[in-house]
């Protein structure tokens, strides 16, 4: 990894630390003011203020005590301009403190980071749950396969 790639990945490390500390303000500060945050179920939370308030609710409720953990191999960092990087990474969450994502909680994560005067910030984030489309279930629990 180059020094610039490490700078970008350090932001993701700080995101993980803030999540694991349950610190919504520190988590949100790592996003641009106008960031887009797309959850694993497809909801977009635009803007740093909404990212902070929604994560505060998560950290005080459903995801209290949860941990972000790595998964899915090494992240890739690609610069599309010197001040814009795309990172694709695996990861997920653990409600039990495990060191890998719990079943059904592993995701592929896509970040677009921009370099601002304060440093690198996340301008866009997409969380996509890892799943097997061939094992998807239809309403009512009926299994289906491709083909």
Automatic annotation (TrEMBL):
<dbReference type="InterPro" id="IPR011944">
    <property type="entry name" value="Steroid_delta5-4_isomerase"/>
</dbReference>
<dbReference type="Pfam" id="PF14534">
    <property type="entry name" value="DUF4440"/>
</dbReference>
<protein>
    <submittedName>
        <fullName>DUF4440 domain-containing protein</fullName>
    </submittedName>
</protein>
<feature type="region of interest" description="Disordered">
    <location>
        <begin position="125"/>
        <end position="147"/>
    </location>
</feature>
<dbReference type="InterPro" id="IPR032710">
    <property type="entry name" value="NTF2-like_dom_sf"/>
</dbReference>
<feature type="domain" description="DUF4440">
    <location>
        <begin position="9"/>
        <end position="122"/>
    </location>
</feature>
<dbReference type="InterPro" id="IPR027843">
    <property type="entry name" value="DUF4440"/>
</dbReference>
């Amino acid at each position: 990894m180059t020094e610039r790639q490490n700078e970008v990945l350090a932001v993701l490390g700080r995101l993980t630390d803030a999540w694991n500390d349950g610190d919504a303000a520190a988590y949100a500060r790592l996003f641009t003011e106008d960031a887009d945050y797309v959850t694993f179920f497809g909801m977009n939370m635009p803007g740093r203020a909404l990212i902070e308030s929604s994560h505060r609710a998560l950290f005080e409720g459903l995801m209290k005590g949860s941990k972000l953990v790595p998964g899915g191999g090494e992240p890739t960092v690609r610069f599309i301009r010197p001040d814009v990087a795309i990172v694709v990474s695996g990861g997920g969450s653990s409600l039990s403190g495990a060191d890998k994502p719990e079943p059904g909680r592993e995701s592929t994560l896509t970040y677009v980071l921009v370099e601002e005067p304060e440093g690198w910030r996340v301008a866009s984030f997409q969380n996509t749950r890892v799943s097997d489309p061939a094992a998807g279930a239809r309403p009512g629990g009926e299994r289906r396969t491709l083909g």
